[in-house]
Every structure is written in structure tokens, then in C-alpha cells.
């Protein structure tokens, strides 16, 4: 028996609404494995920066570093403004704040008053940042790519 013309047997929602992949991408971003990798990347980056700081900076530099406003850094384009840290937090989203945190060694490296020791420490911190996020970002990207293309989750 033949099928009657005009019958609908299947709807491919991915073809009808291609933007639905954003829902799947949201699922990837809240996976425990992805969040754990991102937290580990932040901790390893901070650990490397601290190791470079302890190794290459003098005691007076470390004391100044502890007393400066490093907990609420201003973004490079807002350095000349006189605004509180709450205003900076309100103006910049988490993506901009994260990017400015990771780019901090390179931004400070552009300071022409830095000594050779500070320049070396900032260069090593920047290289460390690139290396750490190449590893952790690559792992996160691989998890997302496999999940979004094949629908599979990777084991540890």
C-alpha cells in the first residue's frame, strides 16, 4: 500500500530552526566537566603568575602589589576616568573583565617605566597565560565540538 501524498511523517527541527543549536551550546557551557576545566585553568594561571612573581620580583615590588588596587582593576580605556570599581563592574560584562584579566601582563608590559626584571616577569606571565589557556581552552573546545556535532559526551 502506498503512502498518501501530503502526509507529514517527520520534522527535522534543526533544519527548520537552525538557531536551536544555541540551546545545545548552553547545555555544554553548564556541564560540570567544562566548569571544572575552566576553574582549573583560572587556578593554574593564578598559580603560575604567583610563582613568576615570587621568583623574579623583589620584596618591595611584592609589598606594593599587595597594597595596590589589584582586586578591582580598571580597564585600560577607563584608566583616566575617576570612577569607582562598582562603576567599572557595571560597565564591563564578564567577558570583557575576563579578557582584561588575561591580557593584564601584556597591557602592563607596554609600560615604558618598567625595569628589565619587571618586563621579564610580565613576559613570562603572558607566555604562561597563553600556554595554560591553549591547553584548557582546547580541552573545553573539544568537549563542545564533539557534543555539538556527534551528540556524544567525552569521558575523562
- Looking at the structure, what is the overall shape? elongated
| Number of beta-strand segments | 0
Largest sheet composition = none
Please state the structural category: mainly alpha
Describe the structure.
6% of the residues are buried. With 156 residues, the chain is mainly alpha-helical. It is built from 8 helices and no strands. Helix 2 crosses helix 8 (116-150) and helix 3 runs antiparallel to helix 8. Residues 60-69, 71-78 and 81-87 have low confidence and may be disordered. The chain is elongated.
Please describe the structure with a list of short key phrases separated by commas or semicolons:
156 residues, mainly alpha, elongated
Strands, helices and their partners?
Blueprint: H1 13-16, H2 21-29, H3 32-56, H4 59-67, H5 85-91, H6 94-102, H7 104-109, H8 116-150
In short:
The chain is mostly helical and 156 residues long. The protein contains 8 helices and no strands. Helix content is 67%, strand content 0%.
